[in-house]
Amino acid sequence: MEIDSPSASFIGTIPANYDRYLGPLIFEFSAADMAKRVASGLDGPARILEVACGTGISTRHLSEKTLGGTEITATDLNQAMLDFAAERNGSLEGVTYQQADALALPFADNEFDAVVCQFGVMFFPDKAAGLAEMSRVLKPGGQLTITIWDRFEFNPAVGIVDSVIKSAFDANPPRFLEVPFNLLDVSAVESLYHGAGFQDVEVAHVSEAAKVLDHENVARGFLTGNPTVLEVNDRGSVDIETLITAASKKLEDTFGPVPVALPFREITFQSRKSKP
């Protein structure tokens, strides 16, 4: 993930909590959908670059959906996330992991048949530069697929946890959960594509109702599976377990007792790089 903040490192127990709690809740369905869209646009074995692969959930789905002989280079800025992804996924045919800054990709021009980025662009300090880099390494005619989150109103569980966090601090509350939701304007993302040299952009809103068996796991995921936990601990005035308990109760008050289905919605963008 590419966020310009000292408290935005995905370190320590964060990768494991991200994968354990948030993976099945919000990343598996998105990764499966994205992998299917990418694979359907490939004519055969291909070279794929994944930017901001996190714990490798989308990497695994891409590996499963694409044809044998496909090579996937999965990158992330955070080495801890890459290490977890490599251990979690084990040996996947054709998959390699490499640390890389999305704003300065260490690859040659026109090197990949497809470039994908699941929930990463929102973290780029310079989003236009990130799109330009992904375009640069993409072959003419190759496809660029990215996903972003839709608004809190379509992902209400995240908004609830965010509101509980902010209500617990008199000043300077942790604000990390705002970051994944800072790129909400479809036209703005289309403009990023156009600025990187793409023409027509296909946009799809993808909804999912995630079955939840424990509200505490949801709260724990959004509070400890990302740098929010670092922000809370840095301030030192509120215990993270206190916030988890409060967020769990608010989720149950809002959605009812488990089992329950929580709604989530993302936006997927796809386009092909123009040929000369």
UniProtKB/TrEMBL annotation:
Gene3D superfamilies: Vaccinia Virus protein VP39
One Pfam family cited in the UniProt record for this chain: Methyltransf_11
Residue stretches making up the Methyltransferase type domain: 49-145
GO molecular function, one term: S-adenosylmethionine-dependent methyltransferase activity
Keywords assigned by UniProt, alphabetized: Methyltransferase, Transferase
A Gene Ontology BP annotation from the UniProt entry: methylation
Keyword Transferase tagged: yes
InterPro entries membership: Methyltransf_11 (IPR013216), SAM-dependent_MTases_sf (IPR029063)
Protein name per Swiss-Prot or TrEMBL: Methyltransferase domain-containing protein
Taxonomic lineage: Bacteria, Pseudomonadati, Pseudomonadota, Alphaproteobacteria, Rhodobacterales
